[in-house]
Specification:
heterodimer, A: about 500 residues, two-stranded antiparallel ribbon, globular, B: elongated
């Protein structure tokens, strides 16, 4: 069982090597990339089933003793995130075949390396390896952004690289400080340390600051709406499913293990969560392209997940994890809809769009389902997720939080209706009448499939909720994880 | 005492360069910040003189872990610095002079 843990990390890296050795064979390259990703999904599901029974598979690469080994471990949270991320990667690979993004020689190998870094970051048990794997993930993303970007990509690329580099520097400094204070960087050895050693809490705060920058939490969010919308929509879908989510995962994991969910920090986390929700959703009002609107909503939605973490009860953690999983799928569906719009109309600027609902009803269906799920309307998965977060907030009795969360979803709905009203209804612009292309199945399939997931997660969300409950229990009581990882 | 002083000076110089306009200064600023973090990692393992760790050890052997961290960090920072310089060069070869502000917008 635990041998499988190596697959998500090494499988895509091997695939990247094979892809580099096969220049020009486009169909074969696509098959290799899809197979590697499908293998990761299969392994993710197997790990998910195993971890939900309470088992914690641990792999020490090369059988080295625990102190020096590179240790990989899976609990329900990491297994779930590996599975969901790999699903998004699969959808993006198919969509990239549709848009022609993968005709660039570098696209598929870079995507493979990026995804390997993300899966590795979910599975590692060591803060320094987490730093290395985050870098493995970020370096391809710099190149992908610069390669796939439209006008303004040079500026956006510089903002993105500079911000990420600053984040990595802060992260490394935090890891160094933590090592200096505690003498270890293994998560298992650090469990609960921040409550006992104040200096460890400060050093952990530096690490959390770095991940807040990478996860684009307000007030460190400004780079995301500037950098992401420049890349091609398929690449943004990939980024939204992997990059910021790794930052969020790291915050959840470190706060749960290192700080043991210390209530002293709850007001700070709640404040950051609410600020992210409000500022993200307000920022989306004033921008004019589908990708930009969706990028601002990323900031806003991350706030809901953080809110679930901030309350730190069993119900709120389960809600946050459920929210994270469904939101990654929904967000990828929306960005892939933007990819279809851009492939067929040549732009995703709202002022140049219109009449998509009549010219492309299937796209309208996919977008409508995903958008309503994002806004949190029943019966979609997004409603269940928001409902769970709100119920957890209600149990704590925080009325202000409840009110803000409801208002933010209302504004989210308005913002989705704005895209719908302008791009999907309305007149077909004259310039678009001649050059409208028919999207193929490779383009329309991924957003439809992901939108279908969003729909199914509402009435049939029970299994995911069970996984989220198991993951929340693991975060509240990390003793089992700690024991398995430290080998004691 | 020398450790904190070196880190402090390097961070101050790095942050100063980051806050100045100009791409090249940005790159140099990150190089200095990277050095500062490397010294910090080294200091985390202790800066006083000890025996080499591979020499059978003993109680006073140096901690090899921070040194492994630093080696990894140097490789990563070097790679990204080269990439940043490449971006800068491409911007300057396009005929226009390198942008004064880091996101290419007005100053």
């Amino acid at each position: 069982m635990s041998v499988l843990l190596i697959v998500p990390l090494v499988g895509p890296l091997l695939a990247a090597a094979v892809l580099l050795a096969l220049p020009g064979r486009l169909v074969l390259r696509r098959v290799v990339a899809l197979l590697a990703t499908a293998a990761v999904i299969a392994v993710g599901v197997v790990l998910l089933l195993a971890t939900c029974d309470g088992e914690v598979p641990v792999l020490r690469v090369g059988d080295w003793p625990p102190v020096v080994a590179i240790t990989l471990a899976a609990d329900p949270l990491s297994a779930l995130l590996v599975t969901v991320s790999a699903t998004v990667v699969l959808a993006c690979l198919v969509a990239a075949a549709g848009t022609g993004d993968d005709r660039r020689q570098a696209f598929l190998p870079l995507t493979m390396v990026l995804s390997a870094g993300a899966y590795g970051a979910y599975l590692t048990t060591d803060l320094f390896n987490l730093f290395v794997l985050v870098e493995v993930m970020l370096v391809p993303s710099y190149v992908l952004l610069a390669l796939s970007g439209g006008p303004g990509r040079a500026g956006a690329g510089r903002v993105y690289v500079a911000t990420s580099l600053l984040g990595s520097t802060i992260l490394l400094a935090g890891v160094g400080l933590l090592y200096g204070v505690t003498g270890t960087v293994g998560l298992a050895d650090l469990a609960g340390m921040a409550r006992e050693v104040p200096a460890a809490a400060v050093a952990g705060g530096v690490v959390l600051l770095a991940f807040a920058l990478k996860g684009a939490l307000v007030p460190l969010h400004d780079w995301l709406p500037r950098a992401y919308p420049v890349a091609s929509p398929v690449v943004v879908a990939l980024f939204s499913g992997l990059l910021t989510k790794v930052g969020l995962y790291a915050i959840i994991r470190i706060y749960a293990v290192l700080y043991g969910g210390d209530p002293a920090y709850h007001p700070l986390l709640v404040a950051v969560a609410l600020a992210s929700m409000v500022i993200g959703v307000l920022g989306a009002i004033g921008v004019g392209s589908m990708r930009k609107v969706l990028a601002f909503h990323m900031v806003s939605q991350i706030g809901y997940v953080l809110l679930g973490l901030a309350l730190f009860t069993a119900a709120s953690l389960a809600a946050a994890i459920f929210y994270l999983a469904q939101y990654v799928l929904v967000k990828a569906a929306l960005f892939l809809c933007a990819a279809v719009v851009r492939a067929t109309r040549g732009t995703d600027r709202l002022s140049r769009l219109g009449g998509l609902a009549s010219s492309n009803p299937l796209l309208a269906l996919a977008f409508g389902v995903a958008a309503l799920s994002l806004a949190g309307l029943p019966p979609f998965g997004g409603f269940l997720a928001k409902f769970l977060v709100l119920r957890a907030a209600n149990e704590v009795g925080d009325w202000f939080v409840l009110m803000v969360a409801v208002l933010v979803s209302l504004v989210t709905l308005l913002s989705m209706l704005k895209i719908w009203g302008i791009a999907f209804w309305g007149e077909v612009p004259r310039a678009a009448r001649e050059r409208t292309a028919r999207p193929g199945l490779a383009l329309l399939g991924p957003p439809l499939a992901l939108g279908g997931c969003a729909l199914l997660l509402g009435p049939l969300g029970g299994p995911l909720l069970q996984v989220a409950d198991a993951a929340a229990a693991g975060l509240l009581e990390p003793a089992g994880y700690v024991r398995a990882v430290s080998g004691r | 005492m020398s450790g904190p002083l070196i880190v402090g000076v390097l961070v101050a110089a790095g942050v100063f360069l980051l806050l100045r306009p100009g791409q090249l200064r940005l790159v140099l600023g990150f190089v200095l910040l990277g050095h500062a973090v490397n010294v910090l990692l080294l200091a985390a393992g202790g800066l006083h003189r000890r025996e080499p760790p591979a020499d059978g050890g003993g109680s006073e052997s140096a901690d090899p872990l921070p040194q492994a961290f630093i080696l990894t960090a140097i490789v990563i920072t070097f790679g990204i610095t080269v990439y940043l310089l490449r971006l800068l060069r491409r911007a300057s070869r396009r005929g226009s002079r390198p942008p004064e502000t880091w996101d290419g917008g007005p100053r």
